[in-house]
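pinned: reference chain
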Amino acid sequence: MRHITHLMVALAATTFGLPASAASISFFTPLGPEVVGATGSGSARVVFDDVALTMFVEAEFEGLSGTTTVAHIHCCTVVPGAGTIGVATYPATFPGFPVGVTAGSYSNTFDMSLATSYTADFVTTFGGGTIPGAFAALIAGLDAGRGYFNVHSTAFRGGEIRGFLVRVPEPGALALIGLGLVLVAFATRRRRSD
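pinned: its structure tokens
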């Protein structure tokens, strides 16, 4: 009993001792072929800081059928997984994204308080004509499963690999889930011994 109590206290201290991460909102997706005949694969991670108004983008890809041309985030579909939708970020491509290769990696942080971080259509249609509105709409669209990361290639100009971005739970939430599982196991064990 004493060991379980110590474990619960340690988990609670870990959970509540974590730095506040309300500013960090993370999304992840595996990237796979979008069309028949495409061969590429990869993954993408997007992390927003809703206090600093930044977006960190990290991607890896390999085995593309053609060489890369552009990459960006599309948002926001009416129904998750439904067809092609408009580009939300960077009208052409993420600045510095490797072009003309079949494999590579990318990492960059963007200032999302700038109008140049979005397409004009996205700001008007989803952001209500404002940059703060566009930032909020992009996060909300991804949170609702209505936006995807897309890598276009010379072989598949409309996009060779893509993946719908899914929110990643915060470390504090995972610790609370772990604490709950420990408590359930403890209660189950205690009932069996009674």
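why pinned: Residues 171-193 form the longest helix (23 residues). The chain has two domains: 1-21+170-194, 23-169.
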